[in-house]
Amino acid sequence: xxxxxxxxxxxxxxxxxxxxxxxxxxxxxxxxxxxxxxxxxxxxxxxxxxxxxxxxxxxxxxxxxxxxxxxxxxxxxxxxxxxxxxxxxxxxxxxxxxxxxxxxxxxxxxxxxxxxxxxxxxxxxxxxxxxxxxxxxxxxxxxxxxxxxxxxxxxxxxxxxxxxxxxxxxxxxxxxxxxxxxxxxxxxxxxxxxxxxxxxxxxxxxxxxxxxxxxxxxxxxxxxxxxxxxxxxxxxxxxxxxxxxxxxxxxxxxxxxxxxxxxxxxxxxxxxxxxxxxxxxxxxxxxxxxxxxxxxxxxxxxxxxxxxxxxxxxxxxxxxxxxxxxxxxxxxxxxxxxxxxxxxxxxxxxxxxxxxxxxxxxxxxxxxxxxxxxxxxxxxxxxxxxxxxxxxxxxxxxxxxxxxxxxxxxxxxxxxxxxxxxxxxxxxxxxxxxxxxxxx
Length: 440
Prior knowledge:
By secondary structure, the chain is an all-alpha fold. The protein has helices at 25-39, 67-87, 102-116, 119-133, 148-160, 164-175, 178-183, 196-210, 217-237, 262-269, 278-293, 320-334, 337-353, 366-380, 383-397, 417-427. Helix 2 packs antiparallel against helix 16 (417-427). The longest helix has 21 residues, at 67-87.
């Protein structure tokens, strides 16, 4: 598994002045764009023409994809699935996780079953999740990188197969971790990949798939309250409470993005009903979200960590593609147009620098970045964003032809080909698309 800490290193970009007059902001932003174009070698140049408002052959005025484009996506999904299944023959048999292991492959097939309604996909899902359950970490408790993911995915697969007793057993085993997570035993952090939010998502996933009352709301609220208390404690410890009432760390760094950082945590804390006392959303979460907003670079991108002035990373895990979900949720909850304006600027960043040399994956690749546009499309109904998602899909359809790097786990859900397939299938129903293992 890759080390996320490495994402905070790279060639330094010269700092642009952040305090400028109203008249000079556009000049500063354009200067930042030119600077990034010259110095950033992590993205491949986007040669696709942008949406011009005219009729095109990808989708109709209601956002429904044309039969020709849908068939193109479906054919590519079939092709990549065959390549993936062949490649998985040499995959690590002991990796249970959703992130790079067998639970992630099972999650893909569960998704394909929902989209295509083919029972063969459900059989594939149970085959792969059974492998995952045989090699649980017995250490980590999150959806993506721990035991909660395999247990939650297995519960849903068994439910769809009408194997109720096995589904109930998986949920019981999942809930056995609940008090450990609430108490933060063993120095458990709060972030998504290895922390409380990662366990929280597993409960949300069960309710999304099996019904909103399958996991009592009280369980979700208890975890959310523990996350709030932890954030308040860390903010006071770091003496930043006046700037941000909440603060979080992972390995002594205050990460900003979706995977390890503030944006991912605040996205969940703003979900309706997750925090029992609504006043805490306004008193604690909103000013903390506003603090993240102030970290924005002149380009519209966000740093990987607080205090890092290198405007380099445009990934779901670090940068605008992950921060956008926090901003859109804040706009939905608080109604302030500034959040939507910042989210739209994130979209411009991703359109310009989102085709990555790292490849086509979810965590740090073109497929994950494309979900930015689908989120914006749902919020705004502006066809420009759906068009941009389709252009990133076209990039993914030409998988392997751009000279991108091969990830360490080339067929996995979050690093490799499985994630690309997941996105292409999601695009077939764009208004229902959600970033896997993250979006509520």
